[in-house]
Design the sequence.
């Protein structure tokens, strides 16, 4: 299954100058537990902001400019990365950034969206595409002190 996984505030904010606008260890722990031993797909900017491949995951990066790296597999398109990921018996998680999220949503490439809804409002410069979550079927909800995690079928 192809999933989109994202943490955002009520204004759909997801980033600030290439970083997360918040520091919520509980959300990072949840992200790790969901994506570990699976496949993560990200754009070049997201990969560069993380600074390295995420351990215990197959890391697929979408880029036309990134040179070959030993710890990630580079694809020129999101569709090609997903097609490659489908060869494994693993979940695929699209982890950003904004352009990759927008493409995945526009092209209906994901079956599920996993969102950590951050409770406080933050400032930043990068946003998740505006989608009407009320039109999606919510299938899971877990409340945490600083965020609520929900899964939606697309």
Sequence:
């Amino acid at each position: 299954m192809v999933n989109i996984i994202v943490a955002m505030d009520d204004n759909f904010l997801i980033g600030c100058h290439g970083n997360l606008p918040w520091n919520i260890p509980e959300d990072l722990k949840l992200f790790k537990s969901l994506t570990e031993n699976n496949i993560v797909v990200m754009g070049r900017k997201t990969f560069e902001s993380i600074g390295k491949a995420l351990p215990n995951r197959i890391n697929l990066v979408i880029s036309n400019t990134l040179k070959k790296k030993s710890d990630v597999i580079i694809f020129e398109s999101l569709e090609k990365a997903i097609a490659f990921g489908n060869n494994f018996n693993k979940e695929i998680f699209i982890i950003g950034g904004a352009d990759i999220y927008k493409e995945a949503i526009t092209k209906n490439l994901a079956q599920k969206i996993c969102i950590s809804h951050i409770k406080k409002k933050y400032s930043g410069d990068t946003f998740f595409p505006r989608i009407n979550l009320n039109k999606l079927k919510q299938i899971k909800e877990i409340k945490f002190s600083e965020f609520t995690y929900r899964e939606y079928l697309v």
The chain has four helices and ten strands. The chain has a mean pLDDT of 97. Residues 43 and 100 are 6 Å apart (CA to CA).
